[in-house]
């Protein structure tokens, strides 16, 4: 009996080893219970059941990084079509398509391969290619679930219409698409938005050459590089940890947060190093049109100078969504309008903004003045394409103020409002100097008195 058991264990071990390869060949299906393991054993692919569910899914997880024995799933093949039994199998067909128990679960290449192989790579990408070629005919990186890994493109291939976005799981037990989507949206100037069903929940803002302008992250010095690519063929964001020891993943979780995790070897856990939105001011359009949100003051919403709350009753109840309206309407025809400079955290909503690459600040201003619907202009790094001009022809939405504002925006105002702002600010300056003079004289007087006292005592 014992002997039989040892034999069985031995058999199982041999069986296990014989299957722990990174490659799937046609007519050698991967059965439920077997796994593919990438060359350096970093990732594994196989069948799993999430949380308390009994449903079976094909997924990819970190082979060795399993905090408290839990798999961290980074990709799910059949998130919409689970299997009910543990009798499933993943097949690579002769023509180079993948099926799970003979069912197609994702769009597959329409080209017919003659000698296909499927391989799990060490970056977590599962690819299909001709055996004699290194070019991928299909890759799992093109069909992300809720996780962005190093080397994955987040965004668009404009030639094929492929839109790679992240969609939250429905629950811990159910990887089917939940309500939150992080996507690269191309209207106006490309920006990354977090959607809750069809409502924009938060905006990471356009890429400013270093980071997404709205997330307030500073340039990192941990070796992690990231890039934004925008040309006629592609618009995508990607980060890269190759050449570092960092293990990093970003997800959109079930509560609608974008979170980045880094593996901490010492404790064997995932550290949440970044999350978004992290404050009320990062919720989309918290203060409405022409309102500015500042998390460091109370109340957090203010109107831009030259504007007043559209609904004072609502604002009094700290509901600022209706935003602000002008004190004085613009006077475009008479050409008396001017501009007020504001310095804020990031660009206002750019989905309806118009980019003019390669023109100067003066030309930008002239372009704005020419168009009666223009409300503002700015000079900025346009999605990594270099410095350029942007004009807005709509209300200004989703503006934030922080302790390190860096983005100048020139807001169009009627002459009367500009005049009252400049007189107010010079009055403010005047009263500031008065205060300084009084403080200075008082201090001088105290010193004088002390000096005389000291003389008296000595004398
Ligand atoms: C697997 O088992 C389930 C029931 O557990 C059954 O409905 C299904 O047809 C089986 N599939 C295959 C490929 O045998
Ligand atoms: C490839 O083979 C599978 C399974 O035989 C089939 O369902 C699919 O239609 C084929 N695809 C093409 C492009 O021929
Ligand atoms: C790969 O093999 C196919 C035939 O199986 C052949 O037509 C093709 O030219 C080969 N490609 C390369 C790059 O060797
Ligand atoms: C990632 O960075 C490494 C080292 O800097 C580089 O060799 C590699 O090409 C980069 N990968 C991508 C996909 O950009
Ligand atoms: C996310 O991508 C999927 C697949 O390309 C697409 O159907 C869906 O509309 C996208 N959602 C958003 C919000 O971009
Ligand atoms: C503009 O973007 C480039 C990278 O595309 C960056 O090197 C540069 O520092 C950015 N300039 C400003 C003013 O942010
Ligand atoms: C434009 O100027 C004329 C003449 O000064 C004035 O009557 C008119 O009200 C101005 N228009 C606006 C919209 O202010
Ligand atoms: C902007 O100017 C730069 C350098 O002068 C040039 O390389 C680039 O092609 C120009 N871009 C556009 C859109 O004209
Ligand atoms: C102002 O810009 C908007 C948006 O591009 C455009 O529809 C409108 O025709 C422009 N108006 C003028 C007078 O150029």
TrEMBL record:
* Residue ranges annotated for the Apple domain, each copy included: 332-414
Q: Could you tell me the keywords of this UniProt record?
A: Disulfide bond, Membrane, Signal, Transmembrane, Transmembrane helix
> What CDD domains does this protein's entry cite?
B_lectin (cd00028), PAN_AP_plant (cd01098)
Source domain of life: Eukaryota
Q: Output the PROSITE patterns linked to this UniProt entry.
A: BULB_LECTIN (PS50927), PAN (PS50948)
Q: Gene3D superfamilies attached here?
A: Bulb-type lectin domain
What InterPro entries does the record point to? Bulb-type_lectin_dom, Bulb-type_lectin_dom_sf, Pan_app, S_locus_glycoprot_dom, SLSG/EP1
Residues that span the membrane, as ranges: 434-454
Q: Which residues form the Bulb-type lectin domain?
A: 21-141
Signal peptide range: 1-20
> What SUPFAM superfamilies does its record include?
alpha-D-mannose-specific plant lectins
Pfam families attached to this UniProt entry: B_lectin (PF01453), PAN_2 (PF08276), S_locus_glycop (PF00954)
Q: Name one GO biological process term.
A: response to other organism
What's its job? Involved in sporophytic self-incompatibility system (the inability of flowering plants to achieve self-fertilization).
Concerning PANTHER family, the annotation shows: BULB-TYPE LECTIN DOMAIN-CONTAINING PROTEIN, OS01G0958200 PROTEIN
Supply the name of the protein. Receptor-like serine/threonine-protein kinase SD1-8 isoform X1
């Amino acid at each position: 009996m014992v002997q039989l058991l040892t034999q069985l264990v031995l058999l199982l071990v041999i069986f296990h080893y014989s299957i722990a390869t990174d490659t799937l060949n046609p007519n050698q299906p991967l059965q439920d219970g077997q796994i593919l393991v990438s060359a350096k054993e970093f990732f594994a692919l196989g069948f799993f059941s999430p949380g308390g569910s009994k449903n079976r899914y094909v997924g990819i997880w970190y082979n060795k990084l399993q905090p408290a024995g839990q798999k961290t799933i980074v990709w799910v093949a059949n998130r919409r079509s689970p299997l009910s039994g543990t009798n499933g199998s993943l097949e690579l067909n002769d023509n180079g398509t993948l099926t799970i128990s003979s069912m197609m679960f994702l769009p597959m290449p329409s080209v017919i391969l003659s000698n296909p192989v499927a391989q799990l790579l060490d970056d977590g990408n599962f690819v299909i290619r001709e055996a004699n070629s290194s070019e991928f005919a299909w890759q799992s990186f093109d069909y992300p679930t809720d996780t962005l890994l190093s080397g994955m493109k987040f965004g668009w291939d404009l030639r094929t219409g492929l839109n790679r976005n992240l969609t939250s799981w429905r629950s811990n037990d159910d990887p089917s698409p939940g309500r939150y989507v992080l996507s690269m949206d191309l209207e106006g100037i490309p920006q990354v938005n977090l959607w809750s069903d069809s409502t924009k929940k938060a905006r990471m803002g356009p890429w400013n050459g270093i980071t997404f302008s709205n997330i307030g992250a500073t340039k990192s010095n941990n070796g992690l590089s990231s890039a934004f690519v925008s040309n006629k063929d592609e618009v995508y964001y990607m980060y890269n940890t190759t050449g570092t020891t960092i293990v990093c993943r970003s997800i959109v979780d079930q509560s609608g947060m974008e979170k980045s995790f880094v593996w901490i070897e010492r404790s064997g856990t995932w550290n949440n190093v970044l999350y978004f939105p992290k404050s009320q001011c990062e919720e989309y359009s918290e203060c409405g049109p022409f309102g500015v949100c500042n998390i460091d003051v109370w109340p957090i919403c203010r109107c831009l100078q030259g504007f007043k709350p559209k609904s004072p009753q609502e604002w009094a109840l700290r509901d600022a969504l209706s935003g602000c309206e002008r004190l004085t309407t613009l006077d475009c025809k008479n050409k008396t309008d001017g501009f007020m400079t504001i310095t804020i955290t990031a660009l206002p909503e750019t989905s309806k903004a118009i980019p003019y690459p390669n023109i100067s600040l003066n030309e930008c201003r002239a372009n704005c003045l020419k168009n009666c619907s223009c409300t503002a202009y700015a000079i900025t790094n346009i999605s990594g394409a270099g410095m350029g001009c942007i004009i807005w022809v709509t209300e200004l939405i989703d503006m934030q103020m922080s302790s390190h504002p860096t983005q100048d925006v020139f807001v169009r105002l009627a002459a009367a409002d500009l005049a009252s702002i400049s007189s107010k600010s010079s009055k403010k300056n005047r009263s500031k100097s008065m205060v300084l003079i009084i403080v200075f004289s008082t201090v001088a007087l105290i010193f004088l008195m002390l000096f005389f006292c000291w003389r008296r005592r000595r004398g």
